[in-house]
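FORM 7B: Structural annotation worksheet

SECTION A. Query
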Amino acid sequence: MRKVFYIAGLLMFVGVIHSCHPDDKKSVPYNPTPYTLQYPSYVDSAFGSPSIPADNLLTRQGVALGRRLFFEKMLSGDGTMSCARCHEPANAFDDTARFSHGITGALGTRNAMAVVNLAWGTTFFWDGRTNTLEGQAHDPVTNPVEMNTTWPEVVSRLQQDVNYPALFYSAFGTYTIDSTLVTKAIAQFERTLISFNSAYDKYAILGTGTLTTQQAHGLELFQAFNCSKCHTLGLFTDNTLRNNGLETVPSDSGLAKFTHLPTDYGKFKVPTLRNIARTAPYMHDGRFKSLEEIVNFYTMGVHQASPNLDSNMHFYATAHAMNAQDRLDLVAFLESLTDSTFLSNPDFSRP
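SECTION B. Predicted structure
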């Protein structure tokens, strides 16, 4: 009889322990470790310091959680798709498809953007509809042609997982998961995706490497032909939104879809050119399959009658055509922006 009472009492004790709210586990200390972004010392003086929100400071625990969530398929409606589906590390965190497909097989209308050096970003998405990485991480989960689910469903799945509540506690001091913390963690990881170790960097900034004759001439052309007016040397984007004259009548309204301003019609974010040789296809609608096609467009194809055409595009209406060798050299320079250490960094791979 005593044995029966002992077992019953033990079971009741275990039940009480498991019924306690996770936040009652006072024995577990909340002591996150600050995370320092790794990048060359010249970057701050050359491009400015990275933008880190005061309410989402980087920690090792937050970055590790964000990395896990970036590759987590529970964030999609049917549990088959993660952020990495459209932003593959081997492809410089981009998609090789012109339009990514969601869990239902539906296709989007814009090419996925590469995720790199976004700690220096000020606008996100092709249409610039958000100015925070946290905001960028939020939208794809509920987009019907992407991950096609709801945040309450995602939060419920993560909350019931055997590991995630404790991971959120170590990162944010609470076992209670919500969409804000999920996007904060993903944004922390994305801010660590830094690429400043290409042949161009070693040659032009560090002075420790060389470019081929073709690449060096291509760099000269890149500046002489106004490419650097928008793709500023270093970050290779100025984070602005511009109409580059892809169409006389833009089929996609771009920024104007959200501002409703006629002056924003056809404007899209200037993408970074870092690792550009690994992120084909190109432009917001993925219309160009190769770097050669892009160079040909800017030398012969800019639609000067396009509304709100960026003033830098008028340069291409005059007699500034490149010859065949110039075009090859410019492409060679763009290829020098590939950072192989970024593409193969184990810290950025699936955990």
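SECTION C. Observations
The longest strand covers residues 241-242. DSSP finds 13 helices and two strands in the chain.

SECTION D. Sign-off
Analyst initials: ____
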